[in-house]
Predict the 3D structure of the following.
Amino acid sequence: MMISITPLGYAAGAEVTGVDFTQPLDNSTRDTLYSAWLKHIVLVFKGAEQLTPEQHIAFSRNFGKLDGHESQVPETLYPGLPEILLITTKPIQGKPSSSRNAGRNWHTDLSYSTRPAKGALLLCKEKPEVGSDTLFANHYLSYETLSPTMRAFLDPLECVHDATLIKGIEKRDPAHVAEMKRRNPPVIHPLVRVHPETGRKSLLVNERISGIVGLTDEEGTMLLRFLNQHATAQEFIYRHRWSVGDIVLWDNRCTSHIALADFDTNQARLMLRCSLEGEVVSGRLAERVEAESKESLLQAIAAAA
Ligand code: SIN
């Protein structure tokens, strides 16, 4: 089959055709896809509605080692296949799914852990009649369009990422929330990161950050508000409108994304996600520093560094 790669947007996104993802890829096909992924950041493959969970896992492995999802509660994993995370409005084991409102604020997968994901392959199995789009923001562009003075100010900064800032987490099963908190204490990452393969810098900002180390709470809140607004400006976005059978592969090392609630949430939406394990542990636990308040935590971490 002849592979073709058609750009879908300026900021990110390309549609790939001519790949048989039910079969192992030869090296040349794999290299072509991998290079296209680094270049376009988000790749869209269509027609995968018949893909089995095992084939989804095998295809995903072409792009890296799979995350075993230890940061997640077991109930949200595919039975017997922890490499697959279930993101669904459908009940799981007769109970409302804890992932029914997953991804509702801008986030970078697993940035609340010490090893944010390298990327992910999300397969749409069922979707509502209309809507349930996912937006991806290119954070190379948001970094590169800042002034040199602002970039120099941001380059050495670090942020505290916090799983309790997942939007809507308080509506989930309290036992699941407690387990998420236990598995994911606040963690510190650089605000500007260097992509391990392209060498380009990008902003690691999103809406699950509680503060900027060394800044006052007020300073950090204002700066994060500006950075999040800038990073998600329309010109940096690729918007994916799902069809059943789409696989979307994104590079989590230079993006954030959001799953819009632009649909009737009583309708079924079933997405299966393989996450690619981050190559590096880029974060350190914030809880090692004792502090009485958020304000003093941000200063104490800075003093301890
Ligand atoms: C995610 O945030 O990983 C899932 C996005 C989606 O469900 O559209």
The chain has a mean pLDDT of 93. Residues 87, 102-103, 109, 120, 122, 134, 257, 259, 271, 273 surround succinic acid (CB under 6 Å). Residues 122 and 273 are 4 Å apart (CA to CA). Residues 4-304 form a domain with the Double-stranded beta-helix fold (CATH 3.60.130.10).
